[in-house]
Amino acid sequence: MPALFDKDYDGSRLRIGKLVERTPTQRQYDVTYRGDGLTISGRIAIPEGEGPFPAVVLAHGYIDPDDYVIGQGMTRERTWFADHGYVALHVDYRNYGSSDSEGIPGADLSIGYTTDVINAVLALRAWDGPVDDDRVALAGRSLGGGVVLNALVAVPGLTDAAVVWAPVSSDVSDIYRHFLSGPERADLRAGIDMIYGSPRDNPEFWRGVSSRTYVDRITEPLLINHGTADETCPIAWSRETVRALRAAGKDVTLAVYPGEGHDFIDSFEESMKRSGRFVEDQLR
């Protein structure tokens, strides 16, 4: 993580591609942008009207890159934000969609994805489209929630607010134990152990790549949405993240959804309305 603090970010050259969807309230396009020597793909939703509009950059959760299609993972959120007057830029990340590939997906513990999201914010602000670059937020789901926390730590003041749904733990060793324990991830686990050492063998490294270690750097208000029945990312992870942030004197809100699982099937609209009010209040 400290390597991200002093990194030179160069997100630029946001390019609009083909129109993939149009409704009475918005248009959605495939996009690419440049950053970190790579071309990263994604999808952007633009409200109808002249703008300029506030904007939100979206970081999706884990999907097998072999099964992923452009813009997958936060389709509902992208559409909702555009329907409510936001330009919404969904980032595919490196190794996803039509983005350039680099390394082994997941082996760098989302540091590359974090760089891609930071560069997306910069590319969006530099774009000559209808974006109010003084009103930009970050939003992420699951793995993308962890990416958002990384970005907030890496570049304080990058955006004006952040929202996450069912985020992974801010302690990366929790993620290692929870997601890499099964036989289907044995090869990835062995590769990570060979490069970095396990959390038991090299705890200093795992603290060093965890956003929780550096939450004192965060400046943006943060809303965390989490369901009590989430078995993929236990709500206890978010409670620990909130405790760390509050201990550091940070502005964080935890919204709890009784009985809701990881995918926010029943509470999606409720969580979006809450998140929309939160972002609107912060971007005024």
Task: Supply database-style keywords.
single chain; 284 residues; alpha/beta; 9 helices; Prolyl oligopeptidase family serine peptidase; FrsA_esterase
Overall description:
This protein is α/β, with parallel strands linked by helices and 284 residues long. It has one domain: 3-Layer(aba) Sandwich (Rossmann fold), CATH 3.40.50. The protein is 33% helix and 25% strand. It has a 9-stranded mixed beta sheet, with helices on both faces. Helix 3 crosses helix 4. The longest helix has 16 residues. It is globular and about 55 Å long. The two termini are 31 Å apart. The model has no long low-confidence stretch (mean pLDDT 96).
Outline of this structure?
Residues 77-265 form the Peptidase S9 prolyl oligopeptidase catalytic domain. It contains nine helices and nine strands.
